[in-house]
């Protein structure tokens, strides 16, 4: 997994789960623009700025930590437990691959 280190702005593709697509009234994939190396934090900040109705749905309002039943994937890797300021893979930064926001399933 390569990471982006360029300080320039980039467009990041984000795929949302169905319930968040419905809430934001968007299609399967959205594009957000981030300044500098894209990280989970900068992408989610841009996503919440563009779609304010998503605030608090992916991460906690107060702590900004990922909600327990949300996972992040890119380039076939689970990024959910990566630090929020760790650079995302280069493929995400260049728009080749999207950042997937996945609603985890629970039950029995």
**Fraction of helical residues:** 10-25%
Write the CATH architecture name.
Roll
Radius of gyration: 13 Å
Mean pLDDT: 92
Enter the CATH topology name.
Ubiquitin-like (UB roll)
What's the main sheet like?
5 strands, mixed
Estimate nothing, just give the exact number of structural domains.
1
Instruction: Give the low-pLDDT segments.
Output: none
Give the helix tally. 3
Structural class: alpha+beta
Strand percent estimate: 15-25%
SSE string: EHEHEEHE
**Intertermini distance:** 34 Å
Characterize the overall form: globular
Instruction: Give the strand order of the largest sheet, numbering strands 1, 2, ... along the chain.
Output: 2-1-5-3-4
- Number of separate strands: 5
CATH first level: Alpha Beta
Which helices and strands appear, and what pairs or packs with what?
Blueprint: E1 10-15, H1 18-24, E2 29-34, H2 40-50, E3 70-74, E4 77-78, H3 90-93, E5 99-103
Parallel strand pairs: 1-5
Antiparallel strand pairs: 1-2, 3-4, 3-5
Would you kindly provide a written description of the structure presented here, covering whatever features stand out?
It is a single chain. The chain has 108 residues and is α+β, with helices and mostly antiparallel strands. The protein has one domain (10-103): Ubiquitin-like (UB roll), CATH 3.10.20.30. It contains three helices and five strands; from the N terminus they run βαβαββαβ. The chain has a five-stranded mixed sheet with strand order 2-1-5-3-4. β3 (70-74) and β4 (77-78) form a beta hairpin. It is globular. The chain starts with 9 loop residues before the first strand and ends in a 5-residue tail after the last strand. The relative contact order is 0.27. The mean pLDDT is 92.
